[in-house]
């Protein structure tokens, strides 16, 4: 019994130390060349993620954290770069002070970007040129596209999905599916069809496929 009590007290002490830690934040930055890279894979877990297409020469991975040590792990093998977070227990126990992950992708990168998470929100700005696949269990998704130049596939079990378009008539074929939640599309769609759980249609010449699916949550295209 004493042994269990000591273990519990140890965990509580670790929690209190984490909760009372300094407000200072640290930033871990890594830069990776995307030459010969075909796939960028990001696993962000429950950490909030911001993805940005930017005028940079190489992939930039930034982790803003209120705990030390905490860093993003970037692995490169063959034609793939994989980004994920370490498993520091003090970071996991620091409620309300989770790190924030930011990934900046070069504008001229034309490969695939694959994102997977559990409960973290995902935002994206200036997106273009890359084929995007995003999967999550829960968490809201908000993506702003300068243009849609490749396929987009977003699937979440629970959470809202919001797409902001930088062009009036993207060349896309749309498939929007929601188990429970509304679907709102502000741009006119040709050959539009509606059902209780699905909206389909085409804008422009329909070159690229945009698929959005959420189990429970709203889908907004604007």
TrEMBL record:
Name of the protein this chain belongs to: DUF4097 domain-containing protein
Biased composition, class Basic and acidic residues, residue ranges: 189-203
This protein's UniProt keywords: Signal
UniProt region (Disordered), positions on chain: 177-222
Signal peptide: 1-24
Family annotation (PROSITE patterns): PROKAR_LIPOPROTEIN
Signal in keyword set: yes
Key word Signal present: yes
Organism of derivation: Paenibacillus glucanolyticus
DUF4097 domain location: 114-221
One Pfam family here: DUF4097
């Amino acid at each position: 019994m004493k042994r269990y009590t000591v273990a519990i007290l140890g965990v509580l002490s670790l929690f209190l130390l984490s909760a009372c830690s300094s407000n200072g934040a640290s930033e871990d930055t890594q830069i990776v060349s995307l030459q010969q890279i075909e796939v960028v894979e990001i696993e962000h877990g429950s950490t909030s993620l911001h993805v940005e297409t930017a005028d940079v020469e190489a992939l930039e991975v930034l982790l803003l954290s209120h705990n030390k040590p905490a860093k993003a792990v970037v692995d490169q093998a063959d034609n793939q770069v994989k980004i994920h977070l370490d498993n520091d227990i003090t970071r996991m126990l620091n409620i309300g002070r989770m790190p924030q992950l930011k990934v900046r992708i070069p504008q001229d990168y034309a490969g695939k970007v694959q994102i997977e998470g559990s409960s973290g929100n995902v935002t994206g700005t200036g997106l273009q040129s890359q084929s995007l696949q995003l999967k999550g269990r829960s968490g809201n998704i908000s993506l702003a596209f300068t243009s849609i130049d490749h396929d987009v596939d977003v699937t979440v079990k629970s959470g809202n999905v919001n797409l902001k378009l930088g062009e009036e008539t993207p060349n896309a074929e749309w498939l929007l599916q929601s188990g429970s939640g509304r679907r709102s599309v502000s741009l006119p769609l040709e050959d539009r069809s509606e059902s209780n759980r699905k909206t389909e249609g085409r804008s422009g010449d329909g070159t690229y496929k945009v698929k959005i699916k959420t189990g429970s949550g709203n889908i907004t295209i604007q």
